[in-house]
Amino acid sequence: MKPLFSILFVFFACQSPKDTTADFEKYINQMPEVKSPITFKSTGISNYPDLKGVDKQLLNTFKAPFNDAGILYGKVFTTADYHAIIYILPGDSEAPCIATYTKGGSKIDSLICFNKASSDVDFDCMETATITPDHKILLTDSTTSYKVDDGNRIENSGKLKVTANELVIFKNGTIKNLPKK
Q1: What is the reported pTM?
Q2: 161 burial class (0-12, 13-18, 19+ CB within 10 angstroms)?
Q3: Averaged over 76-105, what is the pLDDT?
Q4: Domain ranges in the chain?
Q5: 3-state DSSP: the chain helix, strand, coil percent, rounded to 5?
């Protein structure tokens, strides 16, 4: 029994690790390409791409970097240094997420685009994310605050506040805020 165990041990120990670079390249080549500019709104995403051509095993291997909850949307940028992939996080307000990877499939950075989109009796918040061809990500948050009387919104009491944030995917694949002008 010992010789058989030794032979099996040597056989499995000498196996080369699985080539994830080739698998990641296959995964990237199978996924739909997303043309920019593209805009997502927190009011809903209705135009999901067709993922029939993406191998299910590869989808499971390269799950979204967001607690494995993201749904693949497609690749938005492929450069000499990185791939940028969009995933959608399901929920009350579907949130687009951008993740960047090395050519070998190692995650570089990621960004969840919507963080506040919701509504209650005293406020409404809508967010938008636009990804532009020059690798910029424009995030807009429009929040209307309302006065409340006896648990009811007072109509025509809304005050709108809009904030905008501009980020960029740098040449190395990191996602950072652009300095305010």
Answers
A1: 0.79
A2: exposed
A3: 89
A4: 19-177
A5: 15, 40, 45
